[in-house]
Design goal:
This is Phosphatase. Pfam families: SpoIIE. By secondary structure, the chain is α+β, with helices and mostly antiparallel strands. It has eleven helices and 17 strands. The strands form three sheets. It has a six-stranded antiparallel beta sheet, sandwiched between helices. Strands 7-8-17-16-13-14 form a six-stranded antiparallel beta sheet. A five-stranded antiparallel beta sheet has the order 9-10-11-12-15, with helices on one face.
């Protein structure tokens, strides 16, 4: 006998928590068939380029991917809202976003004998959320979900860089974050990092030096040095100085990397900034789009015992900040126009109505259309931060 309707979601959630890491989809299938009479259940995870939804299966790469653009599951993924697709035989498929704290993982597609009612749909949405949380935990112990996200093989440098990331999007009441790296399957030096607490958001945007494994190793060293210093609770300028010493100690100035380091005070919108190189920041405030420049200091690891000084600026509720690496603004069009001069401003304006999580991918797609050739000579990073602030925020 089926569990009472009010307990069905809890039954599925408990089963997912108790299940083996590689078996989450099968557990969800069994319980959704038993408790909701589901005909079929599929889990689709977004690939690294965010252009395809890849079906999770026991044999990776054996199921045809579904494009994000032009498909109903893709619509649910992009809009981050459930969609119910009705079929000719009266059955219906509910496409449910699988998202964890704003990080968009994919879509759970559940086909039912008939369109779900409001209560059933609300429970299925909770099931998709619970599944997402369990996938994040399970990825510590299985490669299944990471394999399912791959439309092609990653280079070793790209493998290292993607494993270093905190996620690709994040959402809380004070802000929305979204970021993307390209070429997704062959990235090597550019990166981003963030960490949040009750009072602050710390954001790091890195423009790596070199190519391949050397670039990935350099970025890994710098990001982990910054994390180590941040977790020790020391001031922002000292975090930069300690990371600088770590990079210089390893490479003696032969290799270095550019970093933009920011610490947002959530209650006030005050931002402490250290500009140690080439990543750029644009701000969209109302109808005004402009670059925001800071005092440029030495890249990390260029010289021994470099000292860094922070400076302040403020964000206001409604501000959108766009961060880009030189792989974005140095790209030339067939007419020789650098992307960052005017085309980037146009791209920011064209994406003004999109949520932060979708903006980086759209800007990078416009970058591809702007590029002189299909040959990529540098990797590129775009990060979008929408600042909502709190009641006490000031500009």
């Amino acid at each position: 006998m089926a569990a009472p309707a009010v307990n069905r979601y809890l039954v599925v959630e408990e089963a997912l928590r108790a299940g083996a890491p590689h078996d989450l989809l099968n557990i969800a299938r069994r319980h959704l068939r038993q408790l909701y009479r589901a005909n079929s259940v599929d889990l689709l995870l977004a690939d690294y380029a965010l252009t395809m939804l890849q079906q999770v299966s026991e044999l990776p790469y054996t199921r045809r991917p579904i494009p994000v653009n032009g498909s109903t599951p893709g619509q649910a993924f992009g809009a981050q809202h459930e969609f119910v697709e009705r079929h000719a035989d009266a059955s219906a498929t509910a496409h449910l976003p699988v998202t964890v704290r704003g990080d968009r993982l994919g879509v759970l597609s559940v086909t039912l004998p008939e369109a779900p009612g409001r209560d059933d749909l609300a429970e299925l949405i909770k099931v998709a959320q619970a599944l997402g949380h369990e996938i994040v935990v399970a990825e510590r112990d299985t490669d299944l979900y990471l394999q399912a996200r791959r439309a092609a093989r990653l280079t070793l440098a790209a493998e290292m860089q993607w494993q270093l990331l905190p996620g690709r999007s994040c959402k809380r009441s004070e802000y929305d974050l979204g970021a993307q790296l390209e070429p997704a399957y062959a990235i090597y030096g550019d990166n981003f990092d963030w960490s949040t607490s009750a009072e602050h958001l710390t954001l790091t945007v890195t423009n790596g030096m070199g190519e391949g494994i050397d670039a990935a190793l350099l970025t890994n060293l710098a990001i982990n040095a910054l994390r180590n210093a941040r977790r020790a609770g020391i001031p922002l300028a000292d975090q930069a100085a300690l990371a600088d010493q770590a990079v210089y100690g390893q490479h003696a100035g032969r290799l270095h990397l550019a970093v933009l380091l920011l610490r947002f005070e959530l209650a006030t919108g005050r931002v402490e900034v250290i500009d140690a190189g080439s990543p750029r920041m644009w701000r969209q405030r109302g109808n005004t789009i402009e670059t925001i420049t800071f005092e440029e200091q030495l890249p990390l690891g260029m010289f021994e015992d470099t000292q860094y000084a922070s400076e302040d600026f403020h964000v206001q509720p409604g501000d959108r900040l766009i961060f880009v690496s030189d792989g974005v603004y140095d790209v030339a069009s067939p007419a020789g126009e650098r992307y960052g001069e005017r085309a980037l401003a146009r791209a920011i304006n064209l994406t003004r109505l999109l949520p932060a999580a979708q903006v980086p991918r759209e800007i990078l797609q416009q970058l591809t259309r702007h590029r002189t050739t299909t040959t990529v000579t540098d990797d590129a990073m775009v990060l979008c931060l929408d600042w909502h602030g709190t009641t006490g925020s000031s500009g």
